[in-house]
Amino acid sequence: MATKSQFLPPILPIPLCLFIAFLPEAAPSWPLPSEIATGGAWVLLHQSIGISVMHMQVLRNNKVMMFDRTDFGTSNISLPDGKCRFDVTLSPVDCTAHSVLYDLASNTIRPLVLQTNTWCSSGSLDADGTLIQTGGHDEGERVVRSFAPCDDNSCDWVELYYTSLMNRRWYATNQILPDGRIIIVGGRSVFTYEFYPKSSSSSQFDNQTLNFLWETRDPDEENNLYPFLHLLPDGNLFIFANNRSILFDYSANQVIKEYPVMPGGDRRNYPCTGSSVLLPLRLTECNAVGIPCGTPRAEVMICGGAPPGAFAKANNQSIYVEASRTCGRMTVSDPNPQWVMEQMPGPRLMSDMILLPTGDIILINGAARGSAGWNNARDPVYNPFLYLPDEEDPSRRFIILPPSTTARLYHSTAALSPDGRILVGGSNPHPTYNFTAGPYLTELSLEAFDPGYLNPDYAHLRPSILTVESSIDGTVKYQEMFSVSLMLPFPDPYEPVAVVLIAPSFSTHSFGMNQRMVVLGVERQPRFGLKMNVIGPKDVNVAPPGYYMLFIVHHGIPSPAVWVKVR
Ligand SMILES: *[C@@H]1O[C@H](CO)[C@@H](O)[C@H](O)[C@H]1NC(C)=O
Ligand SMILES: *[C@@H]1O[C@H](CO)[C@@H](O)[C@H](O)[C@H]1NC(C)=O
Ligand SMILES: *[C@@H]1O[C@H](CO)[C@@H](O)[C@H](O)[C@H]1NC(C)=O
Ligand SMILES: *[C@@H]1O[C@H](CO)[C@@H](O)[C@H](O)[C@H]1NC(C)=O
Ligand SMILES: *[C@@H]1O[C@H](CO)[C@@H](O)[C@H](O)[C@H]1NC(C)=O
To answer: Could you tell which of 434, 435, 440, 442 is best to mutate to test the pocket of ligand 5, judged by most ligand atoms within 8 Å of the CB?
Structure first.
C-alpha cells in the first residue's frame, strides 16, 4: 500500500483517500524528530548564473529575483537581443545583466535589465506581490524600482525617477506595514525613515527623523547599518541596531519603549553583521470564527555578529577576530522583557537566519572570524546550524548540519523557497568581476540546502495541499474561515496538522526583510476527512496584506507550499 500510494495521481477521489488513510497496515514508522533534524543535503543548481546574488526575493509565481550591483564592470551573462544598459558614458558600453530571474520549476534563468546602481540596497514586496526595491549607491541611491511578476517573459525592471526617495538609502532596511505601505529605515549617514508610496500631499510626515539611528552609530565603524526591523502584532515596529532596540510607533514618530541593551558586548548590525528573526506568531487559540482571539506573543531572536573593533582590525591590520558565539531571545511583547542569551555551537557572523515551515530556524552562510565588508572575513562556516526554539533543554537546541563546500561570506544570500528548500547564492564579488582575485573567489553559483525533511526516504510521507477554498479564490481573508483539502499519505490521528503562512523575504546582508511566519488556528483537524477548516489571520498587524506561502506540516514534514493572497 505504501509503495502504491506514491504513484497515485495528485487529486484523489475522497473515498480512495480514506481507504488508504485508515488501512492499519499502511501505517509507516515515522522518522524520529531527531532523525529529520540532523539530516540535510546540498544540491548544486547552477555552477554559474552569471551574477553574484547580493539580493534575493522569492516571488508569488515561483520565480526568484536575484541581483547584484551595476558599477562592478561587466558580469558573466549577456543581455539578450543585443540590449545594453543606457549609460553610454561607460566604456565599453555594458551589455551584460546585473539581475536575473530564476525559475524554480525549470531551473533556468532569464537575464534582466537593471540600469541604476543597486549596491547594498533594500526591498519589500507590496500587497500585490510586486517587488518594490529602493536605493543603492551613486545615481541609484534615491531610486525606487519595481518588478511585477508575469507568467511569460515580458516583465522587466521599471525604474522610477532619480529622486523618488527623500534621502539616499544605502544599507537601509524595509518592512511592509499593516496599511500596505512600505517603510524604509536608515541607511549610511542617514538618520531618518520614509514611506513608499508617498502620501498625495507630500509632507514632513513622509520623512521623519529617528534619533535612535544616530545614537546607535559607533564612531568610525557604524555597527548599526541594515537595522533589523520586525512588525509586531500590536502594529508597532521593533527596531534593533548595534546592541540596542526600541518599540517604535512610526505613525506618531514616537519611541514607546526602549528594551534592555543586549548583553555580552558584541555588536549585531553591519559591519558586525549578525541576523534576526521574529519567531513564529501562533494563532492556535483562534479556532472558531466570531470568537475574538488574543494578540499573539512576539519573540525576537538575534544570532551572531562580532565584537566592536572587528571591522577596523580586519580592514587595516589584517587581524580577524573571532565572531560572536551568542544568540539572544527576548519576548518583546512582555511587559518587562529581558534578553535570554544562548551559546551557538561555534562563532559566526554574516549568517542568514531562515524560518522553516516546521517553526525551526536554520543559520546558514557566514564566517567564524573577521567582519563584513570587502575581504574582511576568514574561516567560512560551511555547516548550517539548526535551532529548535521549542526544545526545553537549551543544550539540545542547536544541531550542526552537513557542510557545503562553497564559502559564502560577504554578499551571500539565502531564502526559503516554496518547495521547502533554502536557496543559497552569492559571496565575495570582486571589482570587474575578477575571477582570480582572492582570498575567496567571486561566487556565481546557485545552490540549495534541502533540510532533513526533504530526505527522499521520507517522500512517501510528505503531505500535500490539493485545494484551498475560500470566499474569493486564492485569497485568505482576515478572521474568515477557509478550507484546505490535503493529502496525508499516513495521517496520524494523534499528531495535529499545522497550517502556516510564511511571507517571502527580501534577503540581503544576512537579513530577511519581511520574513514572518504565522501559525494559523484550525477549527477542525482532518481526522475524519481530508479537509481542514482554518481561520484566516487575526488582523493586518499579525499578517500584513500580501502573498504568503501556505504550508501544512505533519510529523515534522511540510508539504510544498501553495501561494495565497492575504487581505
Ligand atoms: C562564466 O560563464 C561561463 C559560460 O557560461 C562559465 O563557463 C564560467 O564558469 C563562468 N565563470 C564563473 C567564474 O562562474
Ligand atoms: C529628509 O530629512 C533629512 C534629515 O532631516 C534632510 O536632510 C532631507 O533633506 C529631507 N529630505 C527632504 C526631501 O525633505
Ligand atoms: C552597547 O553599545 C554601546 C555603543 O557602542 C557601548 O557603549 C556599550 O558599552 C554597549 N553595551 C554593551 C552591554 O555591550
Ligand atoms: C582603521 O580603520 C578605521 C575604520 O575603517 C578607520 O576609521 C581608521 O582611520 C583606520 N586606522 C588607521 C590607523 O588606518
Ligand atoms: C584580478 O585580481 C588579481 C589578484 O588581485 C590581479 O592580479 C589581476 O590583475 C586582476 N585581473 C584583472 C583583469 O583586473
So the answer is: 434
